[in-house]
Specification:
globular; Aspartate Aminotransferase, domain 2; four-stranded antiparallel beta sheet; single chain; alpha/beta; about 35% helix; about 450 residues
Length: about 450
């Protein structure tokens, strides 16, 4: 054996030569400009513009080895999009803790588990609102218990206390359709009975109750930041919290493996910190879009509220119509103007007359199919309910949801647009109803 051969057999750790010194293969970016082009195409960029992008950009134009589209694996010196999204949310809503998650339903599920919802426990919810809130309670193992609503279409505080049992751990008021629940009495009752309050703000981000942003009044605030809501481009959500330990529990459900902790794989630092969770992390792509979307929220809310207010203040009070009760007129977003004709017969007359005038409006009516907003029609939940869950014992929700008419307010309406819509509504009301100074005021 020659000396050279002998040296090659000596372990590098003992002074011999390294077996693998230089990689001969040429690495390529895992994520490159083709992925960027795919996103641009999904945005609807025109073919000629796509051609200009392709001629202007190559993988060589990317920083370092290209992007890593995960919150905890950013290869750039600036904070991740997820971190920037959460920082923007903390500043916008005035909350000490904010976490981006994959959906509004994920936010609700994390909140339910965080406050102690589980097998043998109960969560109180309004009888009206999309099924996701009740489903999140059921997903945690708890029993959803439905509380009827009042003419605000929000949870009726006067009926809340009768729904509370020894098994109740939380109440989850839902701020419906741009308006807000009556939070003062809800908070007072919840504190009296030592139960947590989870605010579902999916349909009213940016709304306020007595000067405070919804989502910051209760213990936890849950948002849907998605294409189906006021802001959001795809699928996303957010959770706000006011207590650090509660926020730890939210993170643990969202992160499961403890990636949210500085020493992620260490034993628990205090009893109950770690438990089995899942993965509801928000992607960096959604986070990047949502940073921009959050920046637009204040303008969206202000424009919508101004249009809503301008229409509402011009409407004539009539005996046969009850306008929706608004728990905070200054804080409402107001993208839907809702009211209740005294009968279905009147509703059937008004709706086509409004539409003929060009007023954008709609109504569910008792003959339309279910849409999983009314508790009695949330069919996937039926096995999760108990006799006292009251899914079929909420007559006000049943009546109002079928009888209401909603006018859809557009944030981009000019003053002239608002005046024309108000004129169209008044024109129809004058034909079918009786003006009265004693009728319930619109504003």
């Amino acid at each position: 054996m020659t000396t050279a051969t002998a040296n090659k057999s000596v372990l590098a750790i003992d002074g011999g030569p390294k077996a693998f010194t230089t990689k001969q293969g040429h690495s390529q970016n895992k994520i490159g400009v083709e992925e960027l082009f795919a996103i641009a195409e999904r945005f609807g960029v025109k073919p000629d513009a796509m051609q200009r992008l392709r001629s202007a950009l190559t993988d060589k134009d990317l920083q370092g080895e290209g992007p890593t589209l995960a919150k905890y694996a950013s290869t750039f010196p600036q904070p991740s999009s997820g971190s920037r999204f959460e920082a923007a949310a903390r500043e916008l809503f005035g909350s000490p803790y904010a976490l981006g998650v994959s959906s509004g339903t994920g936010a609700l599920h994390a909140a339910m588990v965080a406050v102690g919802a589980g097998p043998g426990k109960e969560v109180i919810l309004p009888a009206l609102g999309f099924m996701a809130t009740a489903a999140a309670a059921a997903l945690s193992g708890a029993t959803p218990v439905f509380c009827d609503v009042d003419e605000s279409l929000q949870l009726d505080p006067k009926k809340l206390e009768s729904c509370i049992t020894a098994q109740t751990v939380a109440v989850a008021p839902t701020h419906h359709w741009g308006n807000v629940a009556d939070m003062d009495p809800i908070m007072r009752i919840a504190r009296k009975h030592k139960i947590k309050v989870i605010e579902d703000c999916a349909q009213s981000p940016g709304a306020k109750y007595k000067g405070r942003c919804v989502g910051t009044i209760g213990d936890v605030g849950c948002f849907s930041i998605s294409a189906y809501k006021i802001i959001g481009g795809g699928e996303g959500g957010m959770v706000l919290a006011r207590d650090e330990r509660l926020f730890d529990r939210i993170n643990q459900l969202v992160e499961c493996g403890g990636l949210w902790r500085k020493d992620r794989f260490a034993p628990e630092r205090y009893e109950g910190e770690l438990f089995v969770g899942t993965n509801y992390r928000l992607s960096e792509l959604e986070s990047a879009v949502n940073v921009v979307q959050l920046g637009k929220l204040t303008g969206i809310v202000q424009r919508t509220h101004d249009a809503y207010q301008r229409v509402l203040r011009q409407l004539t009070p009539v005996q046969e119509i009850h306008p929706q009760t608004i728990n905070d007129r200054d804080g409402a977003v107001g993208y839907q103007l809702r009211f209740f004709p005294e009968s279905h017969e009147l509703r059937k007359k008004l709706l086509p007359a409004f539409q003929a005038e060009g007023v954008p409006c709609g109504s569910r009516g008792p003959t339309n199919g279910p849409d999983w907003h009314l508790c009695s029609q949330m069919f996937p939940l039926q096995r999760s309910l108990k006799a006292h869950s009251r899914a079929d014992q909420c007559p006000v929700a049943e009546d109002l949801y079928h009888r209401e008419i909603a006018i859809y307010v557009d944030q981009w309406w000019t003053e002239a647009d608002c005046d024309a819509v108000a004129n169209g509504v008044n024109k129809v009301l004058a034909a079918f109803c009786t003006a009265s100074p004693n009728a319930k005021k619109w504003w």
